[in-house]
Amino acid sequence: MRARSFSHCGITVSDFNRSVRFYWNVFGCPLVGVSDTPAERVRQFFGVDAPTPTCKIGWIRIPGGAVLEIFEFAPHQPPVAIPWNRVGLTHISFNVRNTRKWHEYLVAKGVECVSAPERSPRGHTFFFAKDVDGNLIELMDLGYMHHVLNWLGPLGGWIFRRGMYKQYYQPGSPTETRAPHVNADAPDARTTRVER
């Protein structure tokens, strides 16, 4: 069995309409579906303990076919700082062309950019910005690798799985390490990511 493609990523937002406007006005990503979840479902499925909880779900289509699923709950919990080294989701990423121009565009739109464009050791450029709720968005220009990955990605995956990355597929290999657990809530824990 194999996955067909990447489907979506879900984020909880504080204001549904504000998030819809942000992703449309800034990135040109339209809202393509909306659903209001019954209170009983919000309590049972999502575990929101309230007398009459609500949940509005929206699907925002990203060019290329993926979807950003947004959830607005009432009541909702405040955002918390997420350090890079905490296991779990840290950010979403959009493929773009010309990160320098995108950086200038976002700054002109009033979007908070938390880093300037930089070049990775592998040659692509990237920077990070925040959405209206402080969720990190990476904007990345893969250059020619965008086309290579798009057309040769499946072949590359097949070759790498049997070659230079074979060691990562084998349980108990010398490269498999167990990193020590760090209590991110401890006073001396470092947050390597800009807090939301």
Q: Can you describe this structure?
A:
- A hairpin with a 5-residue loop joins strand 6 and strand 7.
- The chain is 23% helix and 24% strand.
- It has a four-stranded mixed beta sheet. It has a four-stranded mixed beta sheet with strand order 5-8-7-6, with helices on one face.
- The chain contains four helices and eight strands.
- The two termini are 37 Å apart.
- It has a domain at 1-78: 2,3-Dihydroxybiphenyl 1,2-Dioxygenase, domain 1 (Roll).
- The chain has helices at 16-27, 39-44, 99-108, 145-162; strands at residues 8-13, 31-37, 54-61, 67-74, 92-95, 118-119, 125-130, 136-141.
- Residues 184-196 have low confidence and may be disordered.
- It has 196 residues and is an alpha/beta fold.
Oligomerization status of the protein chains: single chain
CATH H-level superfamily title of the domain at 1-78: 2,3-Dihydroxybiphenyl 1,2-Dioxygenase, domain 1
Mean pLDDT: 84
How is the CATH topology of the domain at 1-78 named? 2,3-Dihydroxybiphenyl 1,2-Dioxygenase, domain 1
Morphology? globular
Class of the domain at 1-78, according to the CATH hierarchy?
Alpha Beta
Any idea what the CATH architecture of the domain at 1-78 is? Roll
In the predicted model, the low-confidence regions spanning at least 5 consecutive residues are 184-196
Largest sheet: 4 strands, mixed
Beta fraction: 15-25%
Brief sketch in words of this structure:
By secondary structure, the protein is an alpha/beta fold. The protein has four helices and eight strands; from the N terminus they run βαβαβββαβββα.
